[in-house]
Design a protein that fits this description.
two-stranded antiparallel ribbon, Spore Coat Polysaccharide Biosynthesis Protein SpsA, Chain A, 10-stranded mixed sheet, alpha/beta
């Protein structure tokens, strides 16, 4: 099974730590973020992992070599010349991700208790789904909006009131609000949908542009616990969070 880890981010929220260390190698609970995600993917059965790099990317390459790629096959999608954002990053990695099987995408700064194999199989059991997004009801300012069949229909920023949808006469009040986790499973057909998209673009904008024509599903996992360790306040909470997860 294949997976892509987004490890190319600048980590601006964690400066000055990330002035000299790529965000993916910032330690959490005594291990770099990247190691936590690789080991979680490996435990779930993912044996081919693509990692995109940009800021201080050579440190990530050296770290993987020093750890013998943690016993899995790892490919580097090199964005050191130009950072492509999440949608562009997926398209850039097409050579490694194309084929007949879905692939999982995981932000490097997300810790969670989700069963990744269960998420992957859920996507496989929805044969017409182009993507399945792990979501939750946690409080945030930006929400994805889904209908009663858990299909993506729009987006809303609660702070600014901005709404995005390609559906006509879209009323956001008629839809369920979920926060995106940064973890999703994607069918390789996505690359056909991306043919006209070039350069740098966010995956959420891409999903919103096609969700009226294809099926982008939500997976609101029961009892999901998730921590975004890409910001200082949650990085400080991470050791306690991990300790609590290990005790469950």
């Amino acid at each position: 099974m294949k997976a892509l880890i987004f490890a190319a981010g600048m980590g601006n929220r964690l400066r000055p730590i990330t002035d000299t260390t790529p965000k993916a190698l910032v330690p959490v609970g005594g291990k770099p973020m990247l190691e936590h995600v690789i080991l979680k993917l490996k435990a779930a059965g993912f044996d081919q992992i693509v990692i995109n790099i940009h800021h201080l990317g050579e440190q990530i390459i050296d770290f993987l070599k020093a750890n013998q790629n943690f016993g899995v096959t790892i490919y580097i999608s090199d964005e050191r010349d130009y950072l492509l954002d999440t949608g562009g990053g997926i398209k850039k990695a097409e050579l490694f991700l194309q084929g007949n099987e879905p692939f999982l995408v995981h932000n490097v700064d997300i810790l969670s208790n989700v069963d990744l194999l269960q998420l992957y199989r859920l996507h496989q059991s929805s044969p017409k789904a182009l993507a399945t997004l792990l979501v939750s009801r946690r409080k945030t300012s930006r929400y994805l909006l889904f209908n009663k069949e858990n299909q993506l229909c729009g987006w809303r920023n609660r702070e600014t009131g901005e709404v995005k949808s390609y559906y006509p006469y879209f009323d956001p009040e008629q839809y369920r609000e979920y926060a995106f986790s940064g973890i999703h499973v994607i069918s390789p057909e996505i690359f056909r949908w991306m043919e006209e998209w070039t350069g740098k673009f966010p995956i959420i904008n891409f999903y919103l542009s096609i969700c009226a024509k294809t099926k982008i599903l939500a997976y609101p996992a029961d009892k999901l616990e998730l921590l975004d360790v890409g910001k200082p306040e949650t990085l400080r909470q991470a050791d306690e969070w991990l300790s609590r997860q290990n005790q469950l």
